[in-house]
From TrEMBL:
Keywords: FAD, Flavoprotein, Oxidoreductase. Its cofactor is FAD. This is Acyl-CoA dehydrogenase. It is an enzyme of class 1 (oxidoreductase). Residues 125-220 form the Acyl-CoA oxidase/dehydrogenase middle domain. One of its GO terms (molecular function) is flavin adenine dinucleotide binding. It comes from the Bacteria. Belongs to the acyl-CoA dehydrogenase family. Residues 244-393 form the Acyl-CoA dehydrogenase/oxidase C-terminal domain. It holds the Pfam family Acyl-CoA_dh_M. Residues 8-114 form the Acyl-CoA dehydrogenase/oxidase N-terminal domain. Its EC number is 1.3.8.7.
Length: 454
């Protein structure tokens, strides 16, 4: 499918429904759950009743060939509240890993266990990060050792959204240390499995409505059918890795989810930006609204442009992911890098515009300021995103302009007779020569035909 910025009626309806839910259900509860630092079970249940919380909902959005359904939805939900939004979305990250690495049978069995249904809500978690590794997926220490038909997990995971309260946790572990990221596998660990324990719930700066924990695995025994993809697929993958082929399942998941994180950051950026503009329009000082002062208006102008630029990067990366277009220059990382950093700048500027009121909890901008910072850290820090993009520069950036690498129709009549073609240029030259001898009325008609469209 060709990349287009034209939204379908279904897209517009999705945005309307998501924005209404964010405005009427999420925002009124945002401050409460930010203070309580508790999972917003009632909001999750309400989302399920609205059709926003189920594996089929996310599968349907991911299946959109335009790639735009998911970022459109996420921007609106996170405009409501980043912490509540993250609680709603975390099972989708685990679902993405299950979909990518699991078998169809595993997907059918475990996807419903990750979401539940209205009145019986369930949660899922994706456990990758570790205390010593952070964004360095190659430095994981959690080990999975085969024991008969089972596997035994030992290690520690941290920064795990829904960790300890999830009904299903997908755990990334090393099965062959010599193969680095290619020697890893993912395991399905149901809630209550002996050996998996919540060490502590983390007290965070922002996203406080999202439960985040440290988990430990001590001789945690996992049945063989809970290895994502199964034993035969894992052995095949390890053999390819020993030949220098293949890829990491965790890294593949991150490639797909980075545009999703970019859309989340855009929701926070837009919330802060809109509030700052509205406040600056209403707040009067020195004889008029403060937005009439260039010192206030110009930074907001820059943020407006940066939000739009980041959104376009996000939409392009989402379209590429949906259509299987390779990220030659780290386009997924580009989208997350720019969206996360503009979210921080937008929230900081909102605090600045509101002055002392922006620094206290009377206004929501201090919460957005706390929430925004996470996006430059999780799912790969800004430094990691720059490393991912930087590694492509020597081999890819000098080949052709980036947009020339995108797919398209490279043949057909338009190649020879389309806009900008040599044939059209020659025809134009002939027309100009004829025009010098043509009557005025005929010349006027020809001019209208040759004029660029308006």
């Amino acid at each position: 499918m060709a990349f287009t910025l034209e939204l379908t009626p279904a897209h517009h309806e999705l945005v309307r429904r998501a924005h209404t839910f964010a405005e009427e259900v999420i925002r009124p509860a945002a401050a409460k759950y930010d203070q309580l630092q508790e999972c917003p079970w009632d909001i999750v249940d309400a989302a399920a009743r609205e059709g926003f919380y189920s594996p089929l909902f996310y599968a349907d959005m991911i299946a959109d060939p335009s790639g735009l359904s998911l970022p459109l939805y996420l921007e609106e939900i996170f405009w409501g509240c980043a912490g509540i939004g993250l609680t709603l979305v975390l099972p989708a990250l685990a679902l993405s890993a299950l979909n990518q690495a699991g078998t169809p049978e595993q997907l059918a069995k475990w996807a419903p266990e990750m979401f539940g249904e209205p009145g019986d809500i369930k949660l899922a978690a994706l456990a990758v990060s570790e205390p010593q590794g952070g964004s360095d997926v190659a430095n994981l220490q959690t080990r999975a050792v085969r024991d008969g038909d089972d596997w035994v997990l030992n290690g520690t995971k941290i920064w795990i959204g829904n960790g300890g309260i999830a009904d299903v946790t997908i755990v990334n572990a090393v099965v062959d240390p010599e193969l680095g990221t290619k020697g890893q596998a993912m395991f399905l660990v149901p809630k209550g499995t002996p050996g998996m324990d919540q060490v502590r719930r983390l007290d965070k700066l922002g996203h406080r409505a999202s439960h985040t924990a440290e988990l430990s695995f001590v001789d945690c025994r996992i049945p063989g059918d809970q290895l994502l993809g199964g034993a035969d697929k894992l052995e095949h993958k390890l053999e390819k890795a020993r030949r220098g082929e293949g890829r990491s399942a965790a890294l593949g998941t991150f490639e797909q989810t980075r545009p999703m994180v970019a859309a989340m950051a855009l929701g926070v950026a837009r919330a802060a930006f809109e509030y700052a503009c509205d406040y600056a329009s209403r707040r009067e000082a020195f004889g008029g609204p403060v937005i009439e002062n260039q010192g206030v208006a110009f930074p907001l102008v820059d943020i407006a442009a940066e939000i739009d630029a980041a959104r376009l990067l996000c939409w392009r990366a989402s379209w590429m992911a949906a259509n299987g277009v390779p990220f030659h220059l780290g386009e997924g990382s580009m989208s997350k890098l720019k969206a996360s950093e503009v979210a921080v700048r937008a929230a900081e500027q909102a605090v600045q515009v509101c002055g002392g009121w922006g620094y206290v909890s009377d206004l929501p901008v201090e919460k957005w300021y706390r929430d925004a910072k996470l996006y430059t850290i999780f799912e790969g820090t800004s430094e990691i995103q720059r490393m991912v993009i930087g590694r492509t520069l020597a081999t890819e950036a000098s080949q052709t302009p980036q947009h020339h690498q995108l797919p398209g129709d490279h043949g057909g009549l338009s190649r020879k007779f389309g806009h900008g073609s040599l044939a059209r240029a020659r025809a134009g030259e002939v027309f100009m020569k004829l025009a010098q001898k043509a009557p005025d009325r005929l010349l006027e008609l020809g001019g209208r035909l040759a004029s660029p469209g308006r």
